[in-house]
């Protein structure tokens, strides 16, 4: 795409090859879905955008030298 990011698909039901996706899901569940008592499913869904923006643009990641993922793009 315009950012030079290539989408890679993994085999279904193969945790060995999709560990990064599984780790992101675990983090999202802990830090977004179950971190707060949301008034409704719609409120939880609305908060997902805020979480993903923070996760990708501000949260330091040890695997990236304590930089956010967007620091690696363009």
How is this structure best described in words?
- With 74 residues, the protein is an all-alpha fold.
- It has a domain at 38-74.
- The chain has helices at 19-33, 41-57.
- Helix 1 crosses helix 2.
- The model has no long low-confidence stretch (mean pLDDT 89).
Would you spell out the secondary-structure blueprint of this structure?
Layout: H1 19-33, H2 41-57
Helix pairs in contact: 1-2
The percentage helix is 40-55%
Please state the structural category.
mainly alpha
Average pLDDT metric = 89
**What is the first-to-last residue Cα distance?**
12 Å
Outline type:
globular
**Overall radius of gyration:** 14 Å
Beta-strand percentage?
A: under 5%
Q: Count of helices?
A: 2
Spans of at least 5 consecutive residues with low confidence: none
Return the string of H and E elements. HH
The biggest beta sheet, please?
A: none
Tally of DSSP β-strands: 0
